[in-house]
Amino acid sequence: MTDLHPNRAVFDQVMVPNYSPVSVIPVRGEGSRLWDQEGREYIDLAGGIAVNALGHCHPELVQALKDQADKLWHLSNVYTNEPALSLAQKLCELTFADKVFFANSGAEANEAAFKLARRYAWNKVGEEKHEIVSARGSFHGRTLFTVSVGGQEKYTEGFRPAPGGITHVPYNDIAALEAAVSAKTCAIVLEPVQGEGGVRPADQAYLEAARRLCDEHDALLVFDEVQTGVGRSGQLYSYMTYGVTPDVLTTAKSLGGGFPIGAMLATDKAAACLVVGTHGSTYGGNPLACAVAGKVLDIVSQPSVLAGVTARHQRLKNHLQEINSRHGVFADIRGQGLLMGAELSDAWKGKAKDFVNAALEEGVMILVAGPDVLRMAPSLVIPEADIDAAMQGLERAVARVINA
């Protein structure tokens, strides 16, 4: 008989072992707070890995979902639907984009972007112009194509042979980028802030160089903003912070505020190559997802919300600096908006999970970005009091680890 309240042990019995979740099972969320099966309360600075842009169960998102649920759930792509068209219009009005393709995740949005880049070059030049240049330490998803473009070999181990024609260069190294790009390059793919790679913001000159090189070689500049997009940077999209405009941009995570959706945004020039039959998605443009994402955009695009992200960034950074002044555990505190990383000092390298586990014991949920970096990606509207309380809990966790 199915258990109405399954515990962590059930995971090992019935789930594929590609994850190893902690013993805590959250069952309810409200705002930036979560409660587990035992009724313990947590402050959420993880945000579902930068997904829950407006926290848990935001009343306007709940209402948008309920309203759409009473109308229409799914259509094939033989038809379009009003929520998808409305969301696409908003994205085009708010960004550089002329055209939008909807998917269900960041990986699918990136898969579409990489296929578009190859198709664009194939149309103009031929198959020889197929090479993709990306950065080491990048992360673009878990499909075979996206892990191959991603610059972390551990994700392709055991799955090779991987797709070819992909070159990885050091992040923020202009000379290496210039050396890698040629007439055979169809795209440069970059995260404006590397998320999984350690919360590492791009240098202004680096993104400007990427734009210049794409223009010189008729290649597409693709920005993966799956993690940085939809207000997390303090602008609607991080490219706006830099003033460097891509040809193609991918967005997901915060776009749905917790409801699965992804999108590829593109200029008319780039999008024109994906003619009927060249790409598709059964669930892409789902009315439920698009209705929720439309409401997320309405809220996050408000100037007061974006200004609030910048203010919360400074508050969070100040707290982290104060913790470091007392305990000396961080070598660097960096990030953009409410995507923050605290890199551990040499004495604590490799022990990021110890700090995450201790924080959970103190009622605070944070993330890692590799073994050496603590990552925080809370709700964009997290109350300042919750930031203060969470940082008090994190400091207790830090003390617990260094005194263990």
UniProtKB/TrEMBL annotation:
The residues the record assigns to binding pyridoxal 5'-phosphate are G106, A107, F139, D224, E225, V226, Q227, T282
Q: Which Pfam families match?
A: Aminotran_3 (PF00202)
**Residues recorded as bearing N6-(pyridoxal phosphate)lysine in the entry:** K253
Which reaction is this enzyme known to catalyze?
N(2)-acetyl-L-ornithine + 2-oxoglutarate = N-acetyl-L-glutamate 5-semialdehyde + L-glutamate
Principal location: cytoplasm
Q: What is its EC number?
A: 2.6.1.11
Quote the pathway field. Amino-acid biosynthesis; L-arginine biosynthesis; N(2)-acetyl-L-ornithine from L-glutamate: step 4/4
Q: How is the cofactor bound?
A: Binds 1 pyridoxal phosphate per subunit.
Instruction: Name the needed cofactors.
Output: pyridoxal 5'-phosphate
- CDD domains given in the database record: OAT_like
Oligomer and partners: Homodimer.
Instruction: Report the family membership.
Output: Belongs to the class-III pyridoxal-phosphate-dependent aminotransferase family. ArgD subfamily.
Per its record, how is this protein called by name?
Answer: Acetylornithine aminotransferase
User: Gene encoding it?
Assistant: argD
